[in-house]
Amino acid sequence: MTAKSHIASRIQKAIESYRENDYEDALLHLFPAMDATAKKRYSKLGNASRMKKFIADDHGIIWAAATGMLIGSINIDGTDLPSAVYKFARCTLIHEGGLDRRISFNAPGMVMLSANDWRFPPTFIPALIMIVVMAPENKGLTSSTDLDYGFLGQKLQIDQLWGDKARVQGICDQHYAGRQ
């Protein structure tokens, strides 16, 4: 049996906005779903800590889903990926109404990172959506989306991944076996 929830509703809206190339709106819907999921996992942590830890938990899957590359931990002038997403995207979007000038999601096919310029391909957004959907804490949820997502040579339907991190991790492990 599947259940509809606020998390699933936010993910549905994030996907709809992403499809319309409205990346800020997609993130605006995504971040509450991400925080709610992170709160399930790390209920004793404050908002910033749990969000960053949640992103850090799956940074390898995020990079693989967004770029097809296996990228390790990145730290530029004291800012790592979870901190950049939290500080430059989530906080400024929610508290100031827009993305920080230091982060963008409009560089198709490329990643460019420096202290004042974190550029990601638009595919970074469904990668962030995927880590929320696949979180074991969200098992049993559903949404009415049919977003097909190319992931390391396989076509996945986002709505079939609710709570199934093992499936996604298995695809990563198989794809990168012997390449590290």
Helicity, in percent? Answer: 40-55%
Percentage of β-strand residues: 5-15%
State the low-pLDDT regions, or none: none
Quaternary structure state of the chains depicted:
single chain
User: Structural class, judged by helices and strands?
Assistant: mainly alpha
| Total helical elements | 7
How many β-strand runs?
A: 7
Query: Rounded to an integer, what's the Rg over CA atoms?
Result: 15 Å
The shape, in one word, is: globular
Mean pLDDT: 88
Biggest sheet record: 3 strands, mixed
General description of the model:
The protein has 180 residues and is mainly alpha-helical. 51% of the residues lie in helices and 11% in strands. A 3-stranded mixed β-sheet has the order 3-5-4. The protein has a two-stranded antiparallel sheet with strand order 1-2. The protein has a two-stranded antiparallel sheet with strand order 6-7. A hairpin with a 2-residue loop joins strand 6 (148-151) and strand 7 (154-157). The mean pLDDT is 88.
Key terms:
180 residues; mainly alpha; three-stranded mixed sheet; two-stranded antiparallel ribbon; globular
Briefly say what this structure is.
By secondary structure, the protein is mainly alpha-helical. The protein has helices at residues 6-19, 23-41, 47-57, 59-67, 81-96, 124-134, 165-176, and strands at 75-76, 79-80, 103-104, 112-114, 117-119, 148-151, 154-157.
